[in-house]
Every structure is written in structure tokens, then in C-alpha cells.
Automatic annotation (TrEMBL):
Transmembrane segments: none annotated. This is Peptidoglycan bridge formation glycyltransferase FemA/FemB family protein. GO terms for molecular function: aminoacyltransferase activity. One of its GO terms (biological process) is cell wall macromolecule biosynthetic process. It comes from Faecalitalea cylindroides.
């Protein structure tokens, strides 16, 4: 059982995964990062044996004095045990 974390994920694959989740949320859609145009963003994914099992949008805001804040509504996952890797 191999897990792989990625910080760049295909838009179609990301949106298909997010929309298939019972916890679907507009704030996790791929294009939400475009609305937050003054934030940097990372579309993340977790693969188990080459199958996408988790995804999340991480927003990064640079603050004054070289400070940074991160925001992620939640990570979408298909099964709770995946959070233990």
C-alpha cells in the first residue's frame, strides 16, 4: 500500500473527486482559487496505489512583515483510515 502526496493536480481529476464527495463545498472547487486572486494557492491530492483518495485546496496569504497564513476548509477523503498515513 503506497501513498503519494502531490501539490499539483489535474483540474478535471480534482473537480471530479470533489464533486463525488458527500461533503462537496464550493470553497473546495478548483476554480475557487481564481476568485481568491490575491492569494497564492496549491491544489493538493493524496493517492493510494495511483488512485486519488483525498484532495484539498490550500490558500496562502502573505501578510505584512514577511508573515504567511494558510487556509484550508478541510481535506476531502474517501475513507477515514487514509488520515493515519
Amino acid at each position: 500500500m503506497n501513498y503519494r502526496f502531490v501539490t499539483s493536480i489535474n483540474k478535471n481529476e480534482y473537480d471530479a473527486f470533489v464533486q463525488s464527495s458527500p461533503y462537496v463545498n464550493l470553497l473546495q472547487s478548483y476554480d475557487w482559487a481564481l476568485i481568491k486572486h490575491n492569494w497564492k494557492h496549491i491544489h493538493t491530492g493524496v493517492y493510494k496505489d495511483e488512485k486519488l483518495v483525498g484532495a484539498g485546496l490550500v490558500l496562502i496569504k502573505e501578510l505584512p512583515f514577511k508573515r504567511i497564513t494558510f487556509k484550508n476548509e478541510y481535506v476531502l477523503y474517501t475513507k477515514r483510515p487514509y488520515l493515519r498515513f
